Amino acid sequence: MTQPAVLDSRPGAIARFIGRPVFWGVAVALVMSMSLGLALSRKLPDAPPIYLTLPPFSLTSEKGVAFGSEELRGRVWIASFMFTSCPSVCPKLMEKMAELQHRTRNAGTGVHLVSISVDPETDTPERLAEFARRFKASPYRWTFLTGEEKALEETVVKGFKLAMGKDVENALQIFHSERLVLVDAEGRIRGYYEADKPGIARLLAAVNYLINVR
Predict the structure, then answer these.
(1) How many Å separate Cα 72 from the centre of its chain?
(2) CATH class of 52-212
(3) Are 118 and 164 in contact (CB under 8 A)?
(4) β-strand 111-117 against 142-146: which pairing, if any?
(5) CA distance 65 to 52
(6) Which of 39, 43, 88, 184 is the most buried (most CB within 10 A)?
(7) Each residue's pLDDT tens digit, 137-188
(8) Residue 92 in contact with residue 183, Cβ under 8 Å?
(9) Do the Cβ atoms of 124 and 147 come closer than 8 Å?
């Protein structure tokens, strides 16, 4: 009776089989097909929504020069709002911005950070420059802005659709949004994020999408 063919399980026979080119050809094909299957099974991240397009704006940087939407054209950027005499919230928010500066460093100048003061009476360019040094802001990747109060309100309130101002019952109490805002290379707002760990993670995922997928 003819016996069914079986693979010789002796060590020498196995070694000879592994040494054949056909074995490695099949092995490479299997690995490539598995890798392709895994790649196809991964869901691409969702595109961040488009909320609105920012109107053109121009303010004054910590260098004392005009800086605004024209200088940011073609770059993904993250905006925050602050004032230098803020005792608690703003320093913590700037620490988050410094973290973002570090974590987006591989993107180079493709990702820019912008911090807009809501206290133009106090925050001169010189004071903003000192504040920027405190948080080790790169002069090429992180810009601090101030300007006339009307121009700031036009940018923050009418442009970003966020609150800013002074408490009517206490003129010394300045308020502003603590959210981070993501803007794409076309000047469109793509997200508002809390400056906490989950918010930062979502923001970085959206940044990654805008610089790599779009």
Answers:
(1) 14
(2) alpha beta
(3) yes
(4) parallel
(5) 27
(6) 184
(7) 999 999 999 999 999 999 999 999 998 887 756 545 787 899 999 999 999 9
(8) no
(9) no
